[in-house]
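In the design runs reported in the main text, the only information available to the sequence generator was the tokenized backbone. The following block is the verbatim input for one such run; it is reproduced so that readers can re-run the procedure and compare outputs position by position.
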């Protein structure tokens, strides 16, 4: 299966799931859900490490941009503190890679900063830029008018720290 076909299948499954969720809603609940959508996400840092004796340190080059960090044995970074028996890796991510909304909804992204002092967030298709700081909840609001797949990007930790907003015609 080609990558484009796989992406289309994933989008179709997500759209059907969103539609099913709305079909199960009734009365005032459904009307309220159509008007405003609160989306909650967290900006987190995933970490991993390994013993040099069990796994060789990977030397493949990682993409630049601050989203990935690889710390060789003996590094002072990645919490290794000079330990020559371990190596470590880190990556920044949102705790969910795909969020959904319906055409016509007013969407509020609520992003909580868990790791890193700050994250510069950009939602380019809605001309939104804001900063998420550790221990704080940052918000931005916009109205979605067209179906599509829209990027939510952390400019500070590219390319790994991103998510997508899937907007579909739910009604």
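Verbatim output:
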């Amino acid at each position: 299966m080609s990558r484009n076909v796989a992406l289309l299948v994933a989008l179709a499954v997500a759209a059907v799931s969103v539609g099913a969720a709305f079909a199960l809603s009734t009365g005032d609940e459904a009307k309220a859900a159509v008007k405003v959508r609160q989306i909650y996400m967290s900006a987190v840092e995933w970490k991993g490490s390994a013993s040099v004796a069990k796994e060789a340190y990977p030397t493949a080059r990682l993409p630049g941009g601050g989203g990935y960090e690889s710390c060789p044995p003996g590094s002072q970074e990645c919490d290794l503190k000079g330990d020559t028996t371990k190596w470590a890796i880190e990556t920044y991510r949102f705790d969910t890679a795909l969020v959904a909304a319906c055409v016509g909804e007013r969407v509020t992204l609520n992003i909580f900063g868990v790791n890193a002092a700050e994250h510069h967030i950009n939602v380019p298709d809605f001309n939104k830029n804001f900063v998420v700081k550790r221990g704080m909840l940052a918000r931005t609001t916009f109205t979605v008018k067209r179906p599509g797949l829209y990027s939510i990007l952390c400019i500070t930790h590219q390319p790994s720290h991103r998510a997508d907003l899937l907007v579909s015609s739910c009604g």
